[in-house]
Amino acid sequence: MVRTVFAVIYIVLLVLGTLPRLFRMKKLAPTLSPEEKDRLVHKTPDSFGKGMIKASGSTVEVKGLEHVPERAVLVVCNHQSNFDIPVLMGYLNKPIGFISKVEIKKLPIVSTWMELMNCVFMDRSNRRQSLQAIKDGIELLKNGHSLVIFPEGTRSKGKEMGEFKTGSFHLAVKSGVPILPVTVNGTYNILEANDNKIKPAHVTLTISEPIYEEQYKDMDLTELAAYTQHIIASKL
Question: Which domains does the chain possess?
Answer without folding.
Answer: 2-233 (3.40.1130)
